[in-house]
Every structure is written in structure tokens, then in C-alpha cells.
Write a structure and sequence with these properties.
305 residues; alpha+beta; Trna Endonuclease, Chain: A, domain 1; 2 domains; 5 strands; 46% helix; binds iron/sulfur cluster
Length: 305
């Protein structure tokens, strides 16, 4: 297999990381590079393992998204949607396994495939009641998904689903961009609907609008969907809310401009743009005592345990 090359490919999550702590961004995209190899230098290996850490709220989202994806793939493949009780039971037992594998450290044998919690890694383990509450929240959201009218509509017309959590790469100006749409579905009238499941409380409309603008850019550019035929829906399974966001020519134009300026800022920090080489010294840490450090996955390699 050819050696993997560390390329600068823009994504919404990368841009969000870049706008936060510069050193954390460096750990995520440069310092951890190659650390998937157990024989990698200790610093890269540690940064890679820490990059894989999750928190209870992030993990809730991952589990619920996986349940949604699995169910929709199933119906798209021609099978009937299973009962919610079966989905709940599977999600709860998988969640228990995740917690146990993180607690006993066995996840470290395969950090890319298994779940490791910051709470265990940094020995801040919550109580049993906290874990139980997290699993109950997963169950609540899975039940909410089954009751959601848009999910039910997708299950009724699975042949219209075009994309389901598929990683896509496309070019915008002089940079490549990654997108993963939760669901992209034909609306039956020559347009598409972009559906985004949210599972947390801390989502801001402005941030969602930017993300959906990038998805709209993908749909117009790569799938030739006219800008006035795109609808974006955001379903928050935690709050039980649903909102429609405009994705038209203005939002798409704004997304392209944001990608251009953000990727230019990322490149401006590089030591060597052609080779995408970055050195830690050019990515300063936050001041000692900064609140963000308390929740940062990289506080181990950063020396701020
Ligand atoms: S521990 Fe703090 S300074 Fe270090 S990478 Fe994380 S946020 Fe940045």
C-alpha cells in the first residue's frame, strides 16, 4: 500500500478546530500523524490515541447517528424497519460494551475502532449513575428518532435516499473539501433535502447555517442540483425540535468564501505549504489555566493533565 500523505483538506470540523486552540489543532492534524502505527514515536502515538478520545455527549451523538444510519441502510436495502425495541436493546448493549472497553483499557488495542472516554483516560470517571443517565439519553433519542416524522418519511421512500453518512471529497477553488452528509434525499420535485441529525444542546444556528451552506455547495457543484431546489432540515433529537435553514445562492456563495479564507489562514501557518509541514512552535498553546484545557483531549501530550 502506498504511504499515506498528510494533505490539507478543508472540512467544517477542521475549520472549527482551527478557530480554537492552535496547539490542539496542530496535535489533531500534524502531531498525531502516523500515530495509528503502534510502533510510531511515542509523542505521535500518544497524540493519536488522545485524538481518538471522546466524551459522553460526543459519544451519544456517535451512537445515535450509527443507529440512524444502520436503520436507513436497512430500509434502503429493501428490508423492513425493525421495531424500536430492537434498536434500543442493541444501542444499550453496545453502549455498555463501549464503557467497559474504555474502563478496562482494552480499547487501546484498537483506538481507531473502539471507544475511549476522556473520563477514563484522565481518571475523572463519572459515577455509575452518570453512565446510566448517558445510556438512558441514548435510548430516549433512539425512541425520538423512530417517532420523528422525517425519519418515518425516509423509511417510507427509501429509494429516494441518495447519500447516507458517505465521505465525499470535492474541490473548491484551490483546496479540496471533505463533507459527510447525514442524509441527502430527493424531494420528488427535482430538488434535494439535506437532513442533519443533532444530538446535543450546544448547537448554534450560525454554525449550523455555515455547515449546511457547505453541504449546499457540494450539492450544487457535484450533483448539479440547482441552488433554489435545496432544502436543509436540522432535527435535534435531544431537544425534540426541528428547523429549516435556507440554503440558496447567497448561503452557497458565503460557504465558498469561507472555505477560501479559512484554508488560506490554515496555509499561512504552515512552514512548508507545498509539503503541508507544520511545526508545533507556530501553533501556540492557550494561557495556563484557560478553561478550554479542562476539556481538551490533548491535555496529556500538552503537559496539562
Ligand atoms: S491542553 Fe489547552 S493549550 Fe493544550 S492543546 Fe489543549 S486546549 Fe490547547
Amino acid at each position: 500500500m502506498a504511504d499515506l500523505v498528510n494533505e490539507l483538506v478543508w472540512s467544517h470540523s477542521r475549520a472549527r478546530a482551527f478557530s480554537g486552540c492552535a496547539r490542539a489543532y496542530w496535535f489533531a492534524y500534524y502531531g498525531s500523524w502516523g500515530g495509528w502505527d503502534a510502533a510510531a514515536p511515542v509523542a505521535a502515538r500518544d497524540a493519536y490515541v488522545q485524538k481518538k478520545l471522546t466524551s459522553r455527549s460526543m459519544w451519544t451523538g456517535t451512537v445515535v447517528h450509527a443507529v440512524a444510519e444502520r436503520a436507513l441502510r436497512q430500509v434502503r436495502d429493501g428490508f423492513a424497519l425493525g421495531p424500536v425495541e430492537m434498536a434500543v436493546a442493541g444501542a444499550r448493549s453496545g453502549a455498555r460494551r463501549d464503557i467497559e472497553g474504555s474502563q478496562d483499557g482494552s480499547w487501546l488495542q484498537r483506538p481507531a475502532r473502539r471507544v475511549g472516554f476522556r473520563e477514563h483516560y484522565y481518571e475523572q470517571a463519572p459515577t455509575e449513575a452518570d453512565w446510566d443517565a448517558a445510556i438512558d439519553e441514548i435510548e430516549r433519542q433512539v425512541r425520538g428518532l423512530w417517532d420523528n416524522r422525517l425519519f418515518q418519511r425516509l423509511c417510507a421512500v427509501p429509494g429516494r435516499i441518495l447519500e447516507l453518512e458517505d465521505l465525499r471529497r470535492f474541490s473548491v477553488g484551490n483546496v479540496d473539501v471533505y463533507v459527510v452528509l447525514d442524509v441527502l434525499v430527493e424531494d420528488g420535485r427535482g430538488g434535494v433535502v439535506i437532513l442533519d441529525w443533532k444530538t446535543g444542546e450546544g448547537h448554534h444556528d450560525a454554525d449550523i447555517a455555515v455547515q449546511l451552506g457547505v453541504y449546499g455547495l457540494y450539492a450544487t457543484q457535484e450533483l448539479a442540483v440547482p441552488a433554489d431546489r435545496i432544502t436543509a432540515m436540522h432535527v435535534n433529537l435531544r431537544l425534540g425540535t426541528e428547523s429549516r435553514h435556507p440554503v440558496g445562492a447567497a448561503e452557497i456563495h458565503e460557504a465558498a468564501a469561507r472555505i477560501a479564507s479559512s484554508s488560506a489562514d490554515m496555509r499561512a501557518r504552515l512552514l512548508n505549504v507545498a509539503e503541508n509541514v507544520a511545526v508545533a512552535e507556530d501553533y501556540p498553546e492557550l494561557p495556563v489555566g484557560a478553561p478550554d484545557c479542562r476539556y481538551c483531549s490533548f491535555r496529556g501530550v500538552c503537559g496539562r493533565r
